[in-house]
Amino acid sequence: MTYTSYLYFFGFAIVVYLVYLACPMKQKWKVLFAGSCLFSMILDGFLAVCLLVTSLAAFFCGKQLTKLQDKFNAAKKGLSKDEKKQLKAEITKKKKAVVAAGTIISLGSLIVLKYTSFFLGLFNSVSEIFGGIQLPLLYYALPLGISYYTLQAIGYVVDTYRGKYRAETNAAKLILFVSFFPQMTEGPIGRYDKLMPQLVEGHRYSNENFTSGVTLIFWGLFKKLVISDRASYMVSEVFGNYTKYGSIVVFVATVMYTIQLYTDFSGCIDIMSGTARVFGIKLESNFRQPFFSKSVGEFWRRWHITLGTWFKDYVFYPVSLSSPFMKLSKASAGHMSKFMASIVPSACALFVVWLGTGLWHGASMKYVIYGLYYFLIMLLGTIFEPAFVKMSAKLNINRKGKTMSTLAVLRTMLLVNIGMTMFRADGIGEYGAVISRIFQPINIYDITSGTLFALGTDRHDFLVIVIGVAIMYLVAIMKEKGKDILTLVSTGRIYIKWPVMMGLIVAVLVFGAYGPGYGVVENIYAQF
Amino acid sequence: MGKNKKHSSKKKSPEKNTEPQNNKKPVGVTDKQGSEPEKKTDAPTDIKADASEKKTDAQADIKADASDKKAAPETVSGEAEESGTEEGAQEKKPKGKAAFYAGKALRSISFFLILGTILGIFSYAVHPKNNKKEYGMRDQNAHAFYAEPENTLDTIIIGNSEAYSSFSPLEMWHAYGITSYVSAKGAILMSDAYYILKEVLKTQSPKLVIFETDAVFPQKEDQTLRDRTINNVIENESPLIKYHDVWKIQRPENYFAPINYRWQSYSRGQMDDPRTEGYESRNLVVSDGKNEVYRDGRINYWILKYMDKFVELCREKNIQVLFVTVPNILTTSKLNSQAIKNYCTSRNIPQIDFSEHPEFINIDWTKDTRDGGVHMNTRGAKKVSLFLGQYIINQYDIKDRRDDKELAKRWDRDYKRYKNEVQIKRKKLLGLM
Question: Does B395 contact A at CB distance below 8 Å?
Fold first, then answer.
């Protein structure tokens, strides 16, 4: 049951919504709980089991952590300073053990299911060099969404450890938090303190929520069915047989893939957020016009935001504040120039973050390279920044001017395009081959012969994609300028609301790539 | 009174007061709520954002004060719907409440009316205006029955590729004067079979419907069949969804042209193929099907559901149903045959199973198939059709129509063409043309 199927909308989402509306306020969350459980079971029985294990582990760890904290708070009264310190150390030790257990259970299941074959493969490659034994590779069926809900559960445990909030006392509520159906398979990765209150409080029907939710769903369907799926046919043809095609075709295919990836992922997130919005629940936003970024660093603050902030809060900070890194930063301050001393420690922490980000996407060397590619670009950017500043001052270039900003946006697009191509290529070798194909001499025949339009995405599809992207671009510009179309639609007057809603519905129904003759294209990010 | 209360609460909590005023407030305020994560990431923008938030809050306060007075008469006239909150509605007096809900209902109705009209226009614009492939009709052979004169087809044959390969209406005509049509699609879904039958019955009133049973075992997983059936039903119920991508090939002059399904299939839906690629042995050994996926006699829930609907539709219209199983090496098995037999017994449907009785047609597997035992070729189809024609004439109240001169003229002409085309295809195969 994909999020774009009739079964999901008519057989599941609408039914859950009607029951949700019919239930009394205090019971509403139970409908969401039952719906999410049912959804995971329909998707995959194994997923339901994994979700249950992860949620219960997080639940008991959280409970234990709050209990320890309460114990400390109760006991510390009347103790001397030293005794307090000693008690705190003792409690912290215990808390660390609990948080480690919680993380190991959640992360452990993710690692075993997702990365066993990758690590066994690595072992085999190393072992081969030394003539050692070869282990058989073990592949497990990976439950959908495991990479998302695991991070969500870990975030909850770590936050309770940090005392950000008290642990949840109701196991069913925590299960609902970890498995809330709109965000189960592709995120956005939610935070307990923001999501849980909304899930539990219950919402009445509201015209505004309903209108904005439905509009967002159709906006997501527009991105996914009208743009992404159309682009996918050409992309799979060219990436599957890249040796057959010249530089222009391959380059267009890489651009198409970036478009496909963005519209697929953000479209799906919009469908999910729209569904949640209809229920009165606001999910975290995952994208903020990423293709307006002037640097790769900015791009990653606008693309898959919830993953970035998760890594920042639960990897970057703990790593930077860990004792080896503190030592490193002290040592670099003593031995390096001021500039380098400011870069080296954070670069090392960022290395861990990007290695993690890369690996999070999948158990393969190409994802490691994918993460490190962005890391390297950002690092080089930081290192050469002073030189760029000097150079532009000498050449009298205004780096913040319109032309330079546009160039910076285009440069970022290009760099991102090169990076995203790695997602689609089957491996590092193939990735290199595809990229080198782009740099072959340009052959005009590719265009004049009509090859470009004969690869599954014909000239009509191209036209639809170009118009679709132009509409997305306009909406994005408006959003950058502080005018959110969605807000206009949900709160504005009929002459704005109706044309937008009707336009979207008609566009999806008429120009969507669905139905006979079109295969269902699986969501790219659901595989991670 | 209520207004005053609202007013004083606004001053106390600026956050609350912005809610019902959402439409009047500058858009930026809601924007900021949406971009909360961003604030965290960039420290410098944080300060700016804080300052501007205070400013907008203050602005909103002043605006709210001013607009409150203005908004009062507006809300009475039912405009409160814009604010969208239920609380707004509950504050109204009973009379205003009724008017408010009536306005709301009227709006919803007009929204769907306008949307429906637009969708209707698009639906007509993309609808194929002729039953040919070039006009956007899929499986044109299955849909050429539209061009047959009304109520002239006595027998309708429905099924998948086995059906359009194994039955020859023209051979049945030539030998027995039976008028039949094969409305079959490759890998047909049972729901599609049901809808095709429904469509045929709009212009024809057959006495007999023959269903070829290979479509009962489509060699697909249960989940795929479920999803495809749901999609298929929605497509068949909504022409816009079914033909939505015809905009790619529809010529502008045809957007609003009348629908005229006049294309006729001379072979009456049969896709004859004289190629011969025999199965290695003269006799097919039918597998028992035990422990074999798709040959274990299990009928999928969705298939069964639409088989029942198919049969019910025939019974409703007083049409006889006959199930025929043409043997093939892919899906026939003893268990599958048994499953069909059980189904037919339970619903009292007559059945001919050629996989159990190959002697009925004296089938030669080395010569009668076109692709190594999966589909009949022209020769095999003739054998099946002649047997079936005889059976129909004996068992059903179906007349020899060769006396009807006008009809006979058309059918005889097409029979000649059919024979001719087969010769041409044979010659092409032998490289003589």
Answer: no
- The shortest CB-CB distance from A502 to any of B23, B114, B244 is to B114
Query: Residue ranges per domain, chain B?
Result: 1-72, 151-222+262-430
Q: Class for domain B151-222+262-430, per CATH?
A: alpha beta
Task: Kindly report the backbone phi and psi dihedral angles of residue B287, in degrees, each rounded to the nearest multiple of 5, phi listed first.
Answer: -65, 155
A5, A487, A493, A502: best to mutate for the B interface, most B CBs within 10 A: A487
Is the Cβ pair B122, A484 closer than 8 Å? no
Of A1, A6, A513, the CB nearest to B234: A6
Q: Which helix (H) or strand (E) holds B65?
A: helix B43-76
Enumerate the β-bridge partners of residue B208.
Answer: B155, B320
Residue A101 CB: number of other CB atoms within 10 A?
A: 16
Tokens 């019974």 correspond to: B315
Q: Which residue has the tokens 């639809």?
A: A464
Do B244 and A512 make contact, defined as CB atoms within 8 angstroms?
yes
Residues of B in contact with A493 (CB under 8 A): 82
Pairwise CB contact (< 8 Å): B241 & A515: yes
The structure's pTM equals 0.83
Digitized pLDDT (tens) for each residue of chain B, 433 residues in all: 333 433 433 333 433 343 333 333 333 333 333 333 333 333 333 333 343 444 444 444 434 444 443 333 333 333 333 343 444 444 445 567 888 888 888 988 999 999 999 999 999 999 999 999 999 998 899 999 999 999 999 999 999 999 999 999 999 999 999 999 999 999 899 999 999 999 999 999 999 999 999 999 988 888 889 989 999 999 999 999 999 989 988 999 999 999 999 999 999 999 988 888 888 777 777 777 777 778 888 899 999 999 999 999 999 999 999 999 997 887 788 889 999 999 999 999 999 998 888 888 888 888 899 988 889 999 999 999 999 999 999 999 998 999 999 999 999 999 999 999 999 998 888 887 6
Q: Is B126 on the interface with A (CB under 8 A)?
A: yes
CA–CA gap between residue A472 and residue A209 (Å, rounded):
22
Q: How far is A206 from chain B (nearest CA, A)?
A: 6
List CB contacts (< 8 A) between B48 and chain A. Answer: none
Task: Tell me how far CA of residue B85 lies from CA of A210, A234, A444, A491, in angstroms.
Answer: 11, 46, 59, 11
ipTM value for the complex: 0.83
In this structure, the number of other CB atoms found within 10 A of the CB of residue B8 comes to 8
The chain B residue lying nearest A43, using CA atoms, is B223
| Closest residue by Cα to residue B51 from B84, B73, B80, B28 | B28
| Contact: A509, B38; criterion CB under 8 Å | no
- Cβ contacts below 8 Å, chain A against chain B, sum to 106
CA angle A222, A225, A230 (to 5 degrees): 120
Distance from C-alpha of B430 to C-alpha of A503, rounded to nearest angstrom: 56
For residue A138, what pLDDT is reported? 67
B199 touches chain A (CB under 8 A): no
Q: Delimit the domains of chain A by residue range.
A: 6-204, 206-283+425-528, 292-420
> A11 to chain B: nearest residue by CA?
B230
Instruction: Assess contact for A497 and A211: CB atoms under 8 A.
Output: yes
Q: Best interface-test mutation with B: which of A9, A491, A520 has the largest number of B CBs within 10 A? A: A491
| Interface touch A502/B118, C-beta < 8 Å | yes
- By C-alpha distance, the chain A residue nearest B121 is A506
* Cα angle B260-B264-B267, degrees, rounded to a multiple of 5: 160
- C-alpha dihedral over B262, B264, B269, B274, to 10 degrees? -150
- In sequence order, the 6+-apart residues with CB closer than 8 A to the CB of A98 are A61, A64, A65, A68, A161
Mutation for A interface: B67, B106, B241, most A CBs within 10 A: B241
